[in-house]
Amino acid sequence: MPQVMVTGAAGFIGSIVVQALRDSGYDILGIDNLARGHRAAIDEGITFYRVNAGDYDALDRILQQSPVDAVVHLAGYIQASESMADPGLYYSNNVRDGISLLECMRRNGVTKMVFSSSAAVYGVPHSTPITEDHAIAPISPYGQSKAWMESVLESYARSHDLQTVSLRFFNAAGAVGRLGEDHRPETHLIPNAIRVALRVDPELALFGDDYPTPDGTAIRDYVHVADIARAHVLCLEALGELPSLAYNVGTGRGYSNKEVVDMVERVSLESIPTRIEPRRPGDPPELVADATALQTDLGWTPQMSALDQIVKDAFRWHRDHERGYPGS
Ligand SMILES: NC(=O)c1ccc[n+]([C@@H]2O[C@H](COP(=O)([O-])OP(=O)(O)OC[C@H]3O[C@@H](n4cnc5c(N)ncnc54)[C@H](O)[C@@H]3O)[C@@H](O)[C@H]2O)c1
């Protein structure tokens, strides 16, 4: 059975990618330094090491002992606002550690990587829906760290025959079974709205109601984490044959913050008191993917990403985990 190393295996998306890969017959070697992840999210059926993705020597020992066929690299820090305050943290964790991982893979003859990139590489888009050939113009060190890693991967593909693809996720959301979204602090709208519906938090901050959108709030493209996980399975199977090095992972349909709050109210049957705050620096008015390429080249279409389905799944998870993962 092919063995895949998943970095960030204790994180929101990583834990669910692990599950999808196992369901497809892969053996998983998971790594995570648990800086932001949760021990309780780690699948008990995998081999797991608590290690930093940039710890060359430790990973070298691990890979010599347990050779892998491919790496799915999800480990990273994810908050644009934190990256504005501390860019060095993002460049060292997301770029330097990524390059160290690539070098370690090279030494151990691992020639395949699926990389988690982000819609943040596009910055403030000049057209929407956004296609992959849109200018790469990130406006935060977080987005820049993803754009640089994409360039590094391109160079490795050219110079070292690395078979690689970067998946630019839009807004990941939802939950699968016992696995859900528990970022601390949480900066994402759906879990934060649900926490208010569950009366864990008293009110929801909405950042900006003066955007040039129909109701004045920002518009985002929400994609179910199960659909993101399936994209990873398809990509791993097709690595080396894909015509492109980067794909958007989104639905092509955007929802405003207010529409999302309405949906959470409908699903939870609770009212959600909101407070309008100023726009967050670097939050574009609208981020919606054109995901045609992933559909054409890989046959991927979103299957679980209707907004009501996403919110229902997320709500169920948060209702069952009001304080998030235990022991974290
Ligand atoms: N959540 C989203 O909406 C979204 C959108 C676009 C892109 N992404 C990307 O997807 C990936 C996963 O996101 P997530 O929401 O699951 O985040 P997450 O914080 O839940 O998971 C990331 C995991 O990586 C681990 N980690 C971070 N740096 C590490 C390092 N140097 N070595 C080892 N482990 C490390 C953390 O402990 C955490 O468990 C990230 O790379 C993120 O940038 C996420």
Map the helices and strands.
Blueprint: E1 3-7, H1 12-23, E2 27-32, E3 47-50, H2 56-65, E4 70-73, H3 80-85, H4 87-107, E5 112-118, H5 141-160, E6 163-169, E7 171-173, H6 189-197, E8 204-207, E9 219-220, E10 222-224, H7 225-238, E11 246-249, E12 255-256, H8 257-268, E13 274-277, E14 286-287, H9 292-298, H10 307-320
Parallel strand pairs: 1-2, 1-4, 2-3, 4-5, 5-6, 6-11, 7-10, 8-13, 9-14
Antiparallel strand pairs: 9-12
The structure holds nicotinamide-adenine-dinucleotide.
What's this entry about, in short?
With 328 residues, the protein is an alpha/beta fold.
Shape: globular
Bound molecules: nicotinamide-adenine-dinucleotide
Q: Would you identify the CATH H-level superfamily of the largest domain?
A: NAD(P)-binding Rossmann-like Domain
- Global structural class: alpha/beta
How would you spell out the order of helices and strands? EHEEHEHHEHEEHEEEHEEHEEHH
> What oligomeric assembly is this protein in?
single chain
CATH topology of the largest domain: Rossmann fold
The major β-sheet equals:
7 strands, parallel
The domain count comes to 2
Unreliable sequence segments = none
Distance between the termini: 33 Å
**How large, in whole angstroms, is the Cα Rg?**
19 Å
